[in-house]
Amino acid sequence: MNALLIELEVRWHNIFTTLKAGGDVAPGLRLRTEGLMEAAVLSGEATPDGLSNAMETCYLEVYGRSIAQNFADNWQEFFPFPQIPAMGKRAPVYPSTPD
User: Fold this and answer.
1) pLDDT value, residue 20
2) What secondary structure letter does DSSP report for 88?
3) pLDDT reading at 91 higher than 70
4) Is 90 or 15 the better-scoring residue by pLDDT?
5) How far is CA 19 from CA 44, 68, 94, 97, in A?
6) What's the pLDDT tens digit per position in 57-90?
7) How far is CA 48 from CA 4, 38, 45, 64, in A?
8) Gyration radius from the chain CA atoms
9) b/e sequence 40-68, b meaning 16+ C-beta within 10 Å
10) pLDDT of residue 14
11) d(Cα 31, Cα 33) in Å, to the nearest integer?
12) Distance CA 41, CA 82 (A)
């Protein structure tokens, strides 16, 4: 495996681990990682399906569930390649007034 693909796996793992723990992922990190995914395809190092499968494996390792289990079987319609399904947990919202 080449350095680009290894770096993608490291970044996916960091993104998913941070989100699972309730942390925030900087948009720049997500966008740069998506750019690396596109660069891997353009350079011939990987295919979109191959990268999606590798990202799915990383997601499964972190969450214990597949991306499809969390976002539905058609998740790639909402997150087309090279988008990463990286969504933080919703913050709890409490009313500030009794109304």
Assistant:
1) 92
2) P
3) no
4) 15
5) 30, 17, 22, 30
6) 999 999 999 999 988 888 888 888 988 987 766 6
7) 14, 8, 10, 23
8) 15
9) bbeeebbeeeebbebbbebbeebeeeebe
10) 96
11) 5
12) 10
